[in-house]
Amino acid sequence: MEVDTTEPGLPDAVSIPASAPARPLAKRSSIAEYGESLLVTVLLALFGTTFIVQAFKIPSQSMEPTLLIGDHLLVNKFIFGGQGAWYEKILPYRAIRRGDIVVFKFPFDDHPHYVKRVVGLPGDRLRIINQHVYVNDDLLNEPYVVHDAAYEDPFGDNFPPAGRYFAEIGVRPEWAEQIISHVHHGELVVPPDNYFVMGDNRDRSWDSRYWGFVDRDAVMGRPVMIYWSVEAAPADYARRNFLGTLRAALQNLLHLPVRARWRRMMHEVH
Prior knowledge:
- This protein is an alpha+beta fold.
- It is built from five helices and 16 strands.
- It has a single domain (54-268), classed as Ribbon (Umud Fragment, subunit A), CATH 2.10.109.
- The chain has helices at 30-52, 173-178, 208-211, 242-254, 256-259; strands at residues 2-3, 16-17, 53-57, 71-76, 101-105, 113-120, 125-129, 132-135, 138-139, 158-159, 183-184, 187-189, 194-198, 214-215, 219-229, 267-268.
- The longest helix has 23 residues, at 30-52.
């Protein structure tokens, strides 16, 4: 059928054919749409956990009272620069600062993730006298630190050791062999691209005093928020087989209303 657009008295009028009825677009399969959405979600999650943020949990008391056993953290992996990459100039990176809490790979064994506070930066001169930390001859203000008088910490009162002959209780053999080489005039000197870290629960922390420095490349990021917290003990995070892990998860679920620390959730980490 055609639509006649000829008007009387107007020669050479044009007849325009009517458009054919539009065919409805074929609906995409619901399964395909769900699959695409799932793929995008997985890719975004992988990108986020690889480059931006990652979840970690606290299995020990070394950072109490700042971080408790059972705290689950979101760690910002997109914060620390200082490695000289070209993109650091245009992205919101910053250098690691003294006082930062950091997540890093432990230098030995299977490189598990540890959480400690940065006390010494590259080039810093550090010593502990009567439980007080001095960095570059200045007393370090540490309002977050707690001490346990009932617990004897070999390196808690005074550090570093004065000579090669010292009690090696709890000290990694690798660190015991090299610690003196980093001591000058009674102070421990932090080498380039390394950091000296300690726990806030100073007498119950296995930290740089006992196993050495943290290499810059081992630092994963900085905890920014406690997104979940539940009362727990170190044994709750011991390595288990599948059935043990499932049993522990069910126990946590059954006791959730009582064990959850609701007031700690969504709190910033400082």
